[in-house]
Structures are given as C-alpha cells and as structure tokens.
Design goal:
By secondary structure, this protein is of the alpha+beta class. The protein contains two helices and two strands, in the order E-E-H-H. It is elongated and about 80 Å long. Keywords: Membrane, Transmembrane, Transmembrane helix.
Length: 75
C-alpha cells in the first residue's frame, strides 16, 4: 500500500480572510477502502448492519440462556 500524498496550506497573511487549501491525490483506493465502500454504505450497508444486529442479539441471548441454565441448575 502506498500512502496518499496530502498537502495542506494555510495562508493567513495574504488577505484579511483566512484561507485553507487542501490537495489530496486519489489515484487509486486500496482494497480495504473498496470493500468498506461496498459493504458499509448505501442499501447494502444498512442491510449488513441489520443482519449484524440480529446475529449479535441471538449470540448474546443464547450465551445468557446457557449460562443461566448452568448457574441455576438444580443439584
């Protein structure tokens, strides 16, 4: 992976107004950025978050159920 080149210039002395200019070279996005943009944005991103939330709910529910069963089991 190559780091992106960024240049920030802050010019306060030229005018009475502050000026900030940024130049970001976006030649090519990395694989991670492409996967993130595909899976975490838009309608697919919303669907993924809903599925993750349901999955996490069931994992916590089953873990609590099994833990409670063994803690409160009659001897």
């Amino acid at each position: 992976m190559e780091p992106q080149e960024r240049a920030v210039q802050y010019s306060r002395w030229n005018n009475s107004q502050d000026q900030v200019s940024m130049n970001v070279s976006t030649t090519e996005s990395s694989d991670c950025e492409r996967v993130y943009n595909k899976l975490c944005t838009g309608k697919l991103g919303i669907a993924m978050k809903v599925i993750e939330g349901i999955f996490l709910f069931w994992v916590i529910f089953i873990t609590g159920y099994v833990t409670g069963y063994y803690i409160h089991k009659c001897k």
